Amino acid sequence: MIRFYILLLFITILFKVNSQEIKKRCGIDFPKSVCVSEEINGDITLNWRKPNDNQGLFLKYELFSVESPFVPIISINNISNTTASIPSTFKHNNFFLTTSILCNSNEIKFKTDTTKILEINGVKIEEGIEQIKWNNNIKLDKNQSYIERKTNTSTWEKIDSFLFETKNFFDTIDICNKNLIFYRLGVLKNDCINYSNLISDTLEDKYQPNIPSITSIGFDTTNQNLKITWNKSKERDIQGYIIYQEINGLSSTLDTVLKTNNTLNNYYTIFNPTTKMISNYRIAAFDYCYSTPPKYQTSAQSTNFYSTILNYNYDVCSKTTNLTWNRLNIQDDIKIYRIFLKKNNKWNLIDSTYTSNYELTLEKFTNNVVTIETHLKSGHTFFSNLCPIYSKSPTEPKISYTNYATIKNNEFIELKHTLSPTTGLKQLALFKLNQQNEFVEIDKIEANKNEIIFKDFDVNPLNYNYSYYVQHVDSCGNYALKHFIQKTILLKENNLQEDSLTTSTFFNNYLGFYGGVNSYIIEKSYDKINFNSIHKIVSDTTTLFNHKIENKENFEGQICFRVKGIENINKFGTKSESYSNTICYYFKPKIFIPNSFTPTGKNPMFLPIINFAKINSYELTIYNRWGNPVFKSTDINEGWNGNYGVEECPNGLYMYNLKINDSSDKEIIKRGLINLIR
Length: 678
Known about the structure:
The structure is a single chain. By secondary structure, the protein is mainly β. It has seven domains: about 1-115, Immunoglobulins (Immunoglobulin-like, Sandwich), CATH 2.60.40; about 125-205, Immunoglobulin-like (Sandwich), CATH 2.60.40; about 215-305, Immunoglobulin-like, CATH 2.60.40; about 310-390, Immunoglobulin-like (Sandwich), CATH 2.60.40; about 400-485, Immunoglobulin-like, CATH 2.60.40; about 490-585, Immunoglobulin-like; about 590-675, Immunoglobulins (Immunoglobulin-like, Sandwich), CATH 2.60.40.10. About 5% of the residues lie in helices and about 50% in strands. The protein has one helix and 58 strands. The strands form 16 sheets. Strands 5, 6, 8, 9 and 10 form a five-stranded antiparallel beta sheet that branches. Strands 13, 14, 16, 17 and 18 form a five-stranded antiparallel beta sheet that branches. Residues about 15 have low confidence and may be disordered.
């Protein structure tokens, strides 16, 4: 027997030496390998590759067994017939195939390498797991060796192909109903696949899928959608995943990811999530085994994985932003946090930290977007939600303007400011122009009302006009927005032409109305209280006016004037008024005393007429020719009727004595004669 194997080896070596030359000369590409497999009924199937025979030199195939090398088991004359089936009695034999051709009138044979059925065996570890073993003689090649499986009703299916230098394989059953399951090991040879013997066991799926694990939960920085990813299960029967969400301790099923078109995704996207709320998520896998009633065979849920929610607190005073975010429940797996800032549509890495907070200083008045990227030791990365931050100063009120500066009773100046209070505005400061032509702060009021009133008593409004402005003091104590300068109206006396009873006055334009000056109204009063409009000036270039007193006017010595400036309706829908100081003209009393009267005629009473004076005291005394008083009165409206008591006085001349004190307490005495005519 030993001699036979030596002879066979010599023939093989000789064949390999000459085969390349013959192939080149005769133009036929003979098969290099014959492969064998066992059928379920025990028969042996052999197959090989069909050679290329461009010159028609093929004669026959012959299948031999090493155990009987000189007598072919099968001879085939059809070049296209590359499969042969033989009885199970040859199960343990070694086989080789020869291909005969006619080349240059000589029959030449080409021999394949020798092959046999690979030997494996199986052990049922438990109801749902089968262990497949093979001996050390079987050399496997990664990506070219694999385990196949089938049932009586299914075709062969590859279940794993990564068997590199391993000697066993564990198959966790994913077939739901109890079945007789066959296994075989396949090894790719040069031209075909060589299989092992068949092993079988009655098995069924008794196991839930393995628990999947979430690898990342992060926000998409382009659209803020939240994406959950997890490790894809290696089990072939996984049909989907269940996503669970927990918010504030309440857990619910969020959605199910199903296998479609034989593809199963390992990610899930939440569109337009509630980004301000921290949620934790879990995942479970299920296979296609059902119970009655139908129910997925589902794995346990994975451990919690939190979404990273970024919050910030912006300090408008220091222009710093304190970033905080929730720490994950997988602290041991966190490698580092990276802070990204988006400005001018460009993301920039600002810094890295191991903590869950960071203080960021921003440029003034810039739009910024911040996000946190979490790096895990596993290599996975994901982003928090995006936080838009506008670096600004304290919030200014939507409405804020100075209504007016006006003179009150020639005693003080009042300013009114209207605003809508806001947390960004703390106080209003009032500035006044001093004699050195510098504005200095004179008052400060809390800005917590819709209307703020300033009063300045340190003024001399009869001789000067005054300029003011109101400025914001923000919540940081900084002086901010300045408002329009308000300049009061100073009304001055030009001259008094007493003989013609004409007054002349002039004033300066008011400055500071938000809507501008509409007109000026000249007002007149005899008592400084009841003012009446007497003239309207529309043009702001004419600030001089004259006024003539009519003789028929009855007043008590003084006439007062003031100017009222009126604003156009401003953009806030309001208009204001500002008053000047009040100036008064004093006129000498005009006294008319008749020289005669007729008690029984048209002029029945002797009564002096006094105009243009305010009388503080009054005394009228009438004397007869002997110097005796016949009438005396302190009532300015009481006249002498020509009687002394109840007796009529005779006709003739009488002497009168009129003594008055005007509003300035100046004494005026008038004496003369009056003729009584009956």
